[in-house]
Amino acid sequence: MRSDNLSGVSEKVMQAIINENNGLALAYSEDDVTAASQENLRALFENKDLVSYNLVTGTATNTLILATLCPTFGAIFCHEKSHIYADECGGVEFQTGGAKLHPISGKDGKMIPSAIEDAIGHYIIDEPHHSQPAIISIANSTEAGTIYSPDEVAAISEVAKKHNLKLHMDGARFANAVVANGCSPADLTWKAGVDALSFGTTKNGTLGAETAIFFNASDDKGFVYRRMRSGHLVSKSRYVSAQINAYIDDNHWLDNAKHANDMADKLKGAILNSSAIDLLYPMQTNILFVKMIPALNKALEESGAVYYSWGVDDLVGARFVTAFNTPETDIERMIEVIGNF
Amino acid sequence: MRSDNLSGVSEKVMQAIINENNGLALAYSEDDVTAASQENLRALFENKDLVSYNLVTGTATNTLILATLCPTFGAIFCHEKSHIYADECGGVEFQTGGAKLHPISGKDGKMIPSAIEDAIGHYIIDEPHHSQPAIISIANSTEAGTIYSPDEVAAISEVAKKHNLKLHMDGARFANAVVANGCSPADLTWKAGVDALSFGTTKNGTLGAETAIFFNASDDKGFVYRRMRSGHLVSKSRYVSAQINAYIDDNHWLDNAKHANDMADKLKGAILNSSAIDLLYPMQTNILFVKMIPALNKALEESGAVYYSWGVDDLVGARFVTAFNTPETDIERMIEVIGNF
Amino acid sequence: MRSDNLSGVSEKVMQAIINENNGLALAYSEDDVTAASQENLRALFENKDLVSYNLVTGTATNTLILATLCPTFGAIFCHEKSHIYADECGGVEFQTGGAKLHPISGKDGKMIPSAIEDAIGHYIIDEPHHSQPAIISIANSTEAGTIYSPDEVAAISEVAKKHNLKLHMDGARFANAVVANGCSPADLTWKAGVDALSFGTTKNGTLGAETAIFFNASDDKGFVYRRMRSGHLVSKSRYVSAQINAYIDDNHWLDNAKHANDMADKLKGAILNSSAIDLLYPMQTNILFVKMIPALNKALEESGAVYYSWGVDDLVGARFVTAFNTPETDIERMIEVIGNF
Amino acid sequence: MRSDNLSGVSEKVMQAIINENNGLALAYSEDDVTAASQENLRALFENKDLVSYNLVTGTATNTLILATLCPTFGAIFCHEKSHIYADECGGVEFQTGGAKLHPISGKDGKMIPSAIEDAIGHYIIDEPHHSQPAIISIANSTEAGTIYSPDEVAAISEVAKKHNLKLHMDGARFANAVVANGCSPADLTWKAGVDALSFGTTKNGTLGAETAIFFNASDDKGFVYRRMRSGHLVSKSRYVSAQINAYIDDNHWLDNAKHANDMADKLKGAILNSSAIDLLYPMQTNILFVKMIPALNKALEESGAVYYSWGVDDLVGARFVTAFNTPETDIERMIEVIGNF
């Protein structure tokens, strides 16, 4: 589909919202459901010190975390195709009051440690003419559908530590990355040196619930004021927190992500077998970037498949995204169409 | 209760959310449900030109409207007890990038035109040392539980027009004001000179849905970019817009507000009859500010009533708020307690 | 005259600028002259720990100090007629990225401790809806031409300490306040609890030189980056610092201020003796606010006197300002005109 | 030398400052000297419509122009080594309230039109997730010591016009570019499609005077308020404007730049003749980037030459800058040292 944003809400999460609708509850995150969500996340991440703040959008989560961790005159290093650099309309620059996003190129939507080192090297510490390096931000899974392994995260964390920077992970599709890595949430984050995580759930089955997680409690200084003044303190917070609780209960989030990844993998098999269509990146999660002959593109569109596409010389580029509730029959129909070429 | 924020979601609105959960829909406000909500609001406000943007919080709505209408070096005139001045943690200053909020005092939570004139008079037009007057912002109903009538709004609009300012209305409790005024939504807004309205619904029965309404289409320039970069473009927008649609359908919003106002009015009757408790402001909607003898406060608390309170010399000040779903029995119990003094 | 800004540069300061024009020097405040200015200020203020940054304008100095000391979600308490509130076009809101300026009224341009206490009382600590109290800012001398004594400053400092706030002094006319108080610079600042001072010199004989002084070295964190990114790191800094050095050398600054104060005092004598003109505030430095009969205003203008004036009912309000180089004959001419009424 | 910032003030400009010190003058740019500077610039640039604002630093000039021309959610395209991107500590991001600087690589410190086209192509117009393209900013002469010709500027202007962007020129070393091009100031700016110019003079003989020039009068909307609130409205403005007037009088500025360029050219000749040192860029103005053998670097340093240097593998990289008052004997001494290798 065009994006996993188009999917609806899983039955389990919707039921949790409905169940919440019983009488009064304190507003503004002072309710018991919100308190419980932090406890649940502490258990999930095997970390008693983490603090969490539930929000409604991924951009809110990314920008508020970064504004909390980064001085207003700081520099943040990220991939040139990352959401925070390319798709948040200057949200980080705005929310931080002027921090600089330094874009770094890299294969398959990923940055390698030496490229980050090079970028940091452009900035002289204690030189007022230069924004001061403060944060490395990586997305996992990436916007290209690839993943960082725990070891790769740890290697980037080494760079961060060496230069006294914080490491942020944009986890808009964190569940897909965990499933693809086959590791624990802790392994992929704080145990690998991540300081803060945007824990996304909306693309994977909730209505609208994203959590800012700081793995070191003292790192969240001022977060609650930044959240309020930017309009992100939801009054009926229990309905957001209830989504988080249902999402992580009983591995619901991993089941959802596994389905999405599996559907993408099935489609990938057909692509690799066809000479009419090719992968642009080594797909590892639920996003496939491809290029294909125009005739195939036409046939797919006529079959009802919906996706972003653009011209690539004589070919057509496209992004296919699967979700927690993508019907297997949809994938099979696409495979059938591809098989005809 | 402490606030109408503590109330849950009305059955009708919750059902609309559930009904929405059927298959895919475009994200980011490009869905049909969002388009329908604008049409519904145009009908409700009898104004074919209005443009509307659905958001999740009142602070987001107020600050994004004001940032869109106000130059970054502008001045905004508002009541000193207004939400935008006193309860948004500097949200307007932040979202506008430095505009000045000029607080104005006034009886019963309201500003009178001459006081606004006086305040504007402090600023010299075209004088670079002075923030430039840009907006008057009023709340209707007010934070004190009082209302502006259409005529009073029109009188303030005259001041705005005279000085070439825009007039904004914070309608976090707009439904309560419409019911109390017994007028049409149009009468209380654009027909009285209001340029933009924060159309609040969350306190009156929805889960989280607030709409920024510009009555003159050209006034919304840049709104969509400010919304995105501040993290307020919800991906699964249809679930927010469905709430708006259910809320205004079949007078649901007015029925809700009428119940809240009626409950407050019933309580007011008992207060006026008692010598142990007095109104601080002439209650007109669903908020009662009172002062009472400590013994009554104690008795109310023991009876299970929940509200904000604070010391006022030897007396106790308190704010009682009713909501769309306040049980009449709760009010009757309070009245009974008051009757004992 | 209209303002002490209209005066030129004292001979001594101009000579220092000329003397500086000999060969190369490091730029961007890394030169020896700038280093010397900090040493000179440490001696003048009897404080070895102070750190100082030379700038060109008073608004730059005020806003950069406040942005350094105040969190972006903080509240700053100041007089409603203060320069930072009324005459910097929202500079503090801009430079801090959204802090709130809370205006406080008070007689003769001054705030009394209890009024500040009351204002702080509006803000609940640790409540995200409220900007968090961070700074009290006073001007000395004030915009009304009055002064705070060391004891009055200390009393305000007590309020600051009690609430864990910083105390800033806008010293655009600091020299006039020191002369009027007959105290030492240290007595009027850090010994009375002032944490940071905008040490103004431009209105008192320099070309353009203002110094941000932090009396506690650790308070200046991040200042150098904020100065640079806001465009206030002057390249040929030695010419600014040379002004500061000449200004404080051999009591030049106090001599200048004494002349200005004396000229104002002389004029004040004539005003007190006349029934055609009255003081609006108890003039203590070099600014006289008066109201007078229109005929006198007309006569003064015809005599060549230049000042700001405005209508006050049937009378004319006016602000007379004297400077370091106001000719005594100018004052005598004004006295003569007043004597005719 | 390390930078042309280290040079002092030319005799002619210093005399103009001294001459200005005669009596009172209106402050805050309302003085006659400032009015005259705009007239002088209109004559110099053969453009009766231009509006000009005198400031003290280059960063102030760049950032205020860009904040005036660029919406707060806009994107600005510039070279990755440009001063606004790499050396203003996030000044543009701060002053605009969150605009995005998009860095573009390019040979010899210059951008070619197709590279700018490519960069603009990353942004979808009317797509709220993307910052909206607003400005192309080029430096002339560049930070690499190279120049854009009028034709090259016009070619970039074509790109700007095609995409409805404004074209800004950072002219911190504008005089050097004019001399090197042998063209008129008009030819290199508005006649080639430049909308706004940072007209730098400080590096070329003034004490501290930079002018923001808008070639289309209506483009300066709001500039005066942004200047004031950011602390850049100098009170004794006549002393700044007097520098501008002396600077452009009688070709003083071109004479100064010619000397600097000539000195660099003389040095360049020696470099081209030596096998121990090489140019990194094709020097065209007053900045030479070189790499040389370590022994030569050592010899130059021992001879008293002062410059920035850094390691380049086994060689030493260095930046030599000449100024309006660089003694020819200094250059001859360097040439002699180079000749020894």
Characterization of this structure:
The structure is a homotetramer of 341-residue chains. Chain A is of the alpha/beta class and 341 residues long. Chain A is built from 14 helices and eleven strands. Chain A has helices spanning 11-20, 32-44, 58-69, 83-86, 91-96, 113-120, 150-162, 174-181, 185-188, 223-229, 238-248, 252-272, 294-302, 328-339, and strands spanning 51-55, 74-79, 100-104, 132-139, 166-171, 196-200, 210-214, 277-279, 287-292, 308-312, 315-321. Chain A has a seven-stranded mixed sheet with strand order 1-7-6-5-4-2-3, with helices on both faces. The first copy, chain A, has a four-stranded antiparallel sheet with strand order 8-9-11-10. The model of chain A has no long low-confidence stretch (mean pLDDT 96). Chains in contact: A-B, A-C, A-D, B-C, B-D, C-D. At the A-B interface, helix 1, helix 3, helix 5 and helix 10 of A face helix 1, helix 3, helix 5 and helix 10 of B.
